[in-house]
Every structure is written in C-alpha cells, then in structure tokens.
Amino acid sequence: MHYTGTIWRPPYEASSLLLEVTAGCTHHQCKFCTLYDDIPFNFRMSPLEDIEADLRETKEQLRLWKQSQVTRTFLTGANPFVLEYQRLMKIAELIKRYFPSNQTIGCFSRITDIKLKTDDELKELRKAGYDGLTIGMETADDSALEFMNKGYTSTDILA
After folding, report:
1. Edge to edge, what strands does the sheet with 17-20 contain?
2. pTM score, two decimals?
3. Which end of the chain has fewer CB atoms within 10 angstroms, the N or the C?
4. How many Å apart are CA 102 and CA 96, to the nearest integer?
C-alpha cells in the first residue's frame, strides 16, 4: 500500500478501506495545524497507477483472509475533495471495479474544495458514492477564521 506520513481519519471511519489519493493539504497555512508537518511537501496527488495497485493489493489480501466485502472507502489526505470532478469519478470507478460491494466513499474536504464543483457535479459525485465529507470548519466567526488563516469566511461556509 502507498501511504505517505501519518494517516489521519475520523474515528467513525475505523472499518473503512483507507485509500491514499492525496498526501498533504492544498492550503497548508492554518495557524494551528501540524497534521502534515511530517511530509516534505505541502500537497501531492497519488498517481492513478498507485491507487489501482493499492486496490489490487487490498483485494488480494482480503482474498487470502477469505474476506471480500468492502462497503465503504475513505480517501486519505487532508482534502482529497479538491481533486477535479473527473478524477474523483475515475477513483470511484476504480473502487467499484475492484469492490462492487462498496456503497459509499468519504474523505476530508475544505470549504473551498466544494465550491470548485458545480451543483450537477456534486449530484453526480453523490450518485457515484461520495456521501461523507468531513469538513474542518472549526468556527464560523470571521475574525477567528481570519486570525487562524483558514482561507475562507463564514459566508463561504453557508454557501
């Protein structure tokens, strides 16, 4: 499996397949965050070849353990939802190819990542299985957001 640095995931994703599709954070400027300080770059997309190799490896490992059911996949990295619509759809397609039992996909997202998609793209991503975005919007207080250098405002959160 291709993993870079410490792997972060919400506690409720404990039984999900963890699939690295990005490493680091596109923003990487929040004052309080040290989550990705252990990697030597700010952000990187995983090559599709690595993603597919990890899915093949997982399928083989589950076969050896006489298990085959993967029902949820969590994409790792600070904000994989920043990836372009077509790439997210390709990742969903790969997951379904290797694990037809997979029903849903979750990942971290920044508010700014969601704004990059059209409403139609968001609907299609939902149909493809993306149903759980974990968004770290620690506050909706504009002065705190600015002080912490989050890169968005409370108006962006509401939108």
Report:
1. 17-20, 72-76, 104-109, 130-135
2. 0.89
3. C
4. 6
The neighbour count for residue 21, using CB atoms within 10 Å, is 25
Q: Which residue has the tokens 């076969």?
A: 63
What is the number of structural domains in the chain? 1
Domain that holds residue 75: 11-158
**Calpha distance 3→77 (Å, rounded):** 10
Gyration radius of the chain over CA positions: 16
- Dump pLDDT digits (tens) for 25-67: 877 766 677 666 777 667 899 999 999 999 999 999 988 777 7
Identify whether 4 is part of a domain.
Answer: no
| CATH classification of the domain holding 22 | 3.20.20.70
Helix (H) or strand (E) holding 73: strand 72-76
Q: How far apart are CA 110 and CA 141, in angstroms?
A: 16
Distance CA 77, CA 24 (A): 6
